[in-house]
Amino acid sequence: MADQFNSANSYVATPSPVQPAAVHAPAPWNLQPIGSEYASEFSTDETILIRRAIAREIFDAVPKKYSALRLLMDKPVQYEDNDVFTYLEKTFGRVALKAAGGVAAGATQAITMTTGGGNNVTINKVIVYPDNTKGIVKVVSGDVVTVQKYNGASDLTAVSTDDYFSIQTGVIADGQNFLTHYDRMSKIERYNYIQLMHRDKRWSRKEMQKFANLSNTNYYELDKKEQMDLLLQDMFISLWNGLRGEVNITVPGTDGSSPYKAMTMQGIFPSMIAAGSASASGVTKATLQESFETLCFETDYKAEGGVRFVFAQNALLYELSKAWKETGLRYKPDDKIGDLNLQIYKIGDMSFVPVATELFKEVSCFPVTWQHRIFVLDTSTIHPVCMQGYQSIELGQTSPKGTNGSIQDYTEWWAQGMLSLKFNNPLSSFYMDTTGIVSNLYTAHNPQ
């Protein structure tokens, strides 16, 4: 509505009990500053003579636990000379043999092993059947392994599809003049790409000056700080869920037919899937403890007392703690605090430390399925990587008009991240997908 103070108005200080608005021009309860939400909703008078009550400090409504991007990203960065790097792993050195089909019992058996099985054994090796029967390898031809019984022993037992055979030892005879037990160390080759990430902001010179002269809030300062927060979140999300590949980068104002090419990195979860890390799906509250403990023992590659870390949203970690603690917890009459949390889980000679990872429940960062996912990682095998000559995070800004010959009437700030991942032995880590333990969250952290 119009500003009543822009023209002369008679004003009677004595209120009328019958028509107060008629003698108060304008009525004091009807007067609001320009832009008032109340004036907009109820069509009251507005004036430039009073200002809106705007809090100077903009409240930071980002959940505080979202800043907990530590542990993984706090590790020292490893530097590589190229943006594509390869790294190798030494394997255990023994691989069990697996039958691809059945064979009848007999003194000698020609057993077809699954693809590549013939590479894991040589002649004159003792192998052990599932029922502890032992035989010695006589011939290896491709993946067909011919096994002979011990002299004077009973026939070799029948073989079924998917039977496993252990390798006991290589045997030599006294005085033999040849060698047969040749081995070469087995290795696994892994590789990854180093990815560049960016967050940019542009402010015109006049915009910046207006905020310097007239700012009601600390928006300008928070806007620049948010740039770093968003970049760190981008790096964290990529570290967990990045997919190695190449993407097209479209030049603004073009149809994208002549794009730049960019590499993307492989993150923790896709690396685990590619390596065949142990996992469980459909885990309910009733099976949570059993599934967790089973996978812990299946993936126990660390030395005695080795520590692994459990990453999940806080609500899931709470349920995991309750699975062990709730049923056996007892209180005294004078107890005032009920503590159902555990700071460390000790299972056998293994230790597990829970780490609340609240970004997993933020749908703008991860798919909804991550709200229900628990990761157990051997973080000693995981290393962030950057290219030699770069820093993992770099900051900069362009020169404003009149500085260093610039004619651009604005300043651009940029924050650049460079990141990749080296993940040795993903088989020492595992993940579980739960169902029905926690509820989906979609918009809880995007208030309107």
Q: Can you lay out the helices and strands and say which pair or pack?
A:
Blueprint: H1 20-23, E1 31-33, H2 37-42, E2 45-47, E3 78-80, E4 84-90, E5 97-98, E6 108-112, E7 125-128, E8 134-141, E9 144-149, E10 164-170, E11 187-193, E12 195-204, H3 205-214, H4 219-241, E13 245-249, E14 260-264, H5 268-275, E15 278-283, H6 288-298, E16 307-312, H7 314-325, E17 345-347, E18 350-356, E19 373-377, E20 382-387, E21 393-397, E22 410-423, E23 430-434
Parallel strand pairs: 1-2, 3-20, 15-23, 16-18
Antiparallel strand pairs: 4-11, 5-10, 6-9, 7-8, 7-10, 8-9, 12-22, 13-14, 16-19, 17-18, 19-23, 20-22, 21-22
Keywords:
448 residues, Elongation Factor Tu (Ef-tu), domain 3, 6-stranded antiparallel beta sheet, 6-stranded mixed beta sheet, 23 strands
What does this structure look like?
With 448 residues, the chain is an alpha+beta fold. The protein has three domains: 4-47, no CATH class; 64-87 and 190-328 and 339-434, no CATH class; 94-184, Elongation Factor Tu (Ef-tu), domain 3 (Beta Barrel), CATH 2.40.30. It contains seven helices and 23 strands. The protein has helices at 20-23, 37-42, 205-214, 219-241, 268-275, 288-298, 314-325; strands at 31-33, 45-47, 78-80, 84-90, 97-98, 108-112, 125-128, 134-141, 144-149, 164-170, 187-193, 195-204, 245-249, 260-264, 278-283, 307-312, 345-347, 350-356, 373-377, 382-387, 393-397, 410-423, 430-434. A hairpin with a 2-residue loop joins strand 17 and strand 18 (350-356). This is Capsid protein.
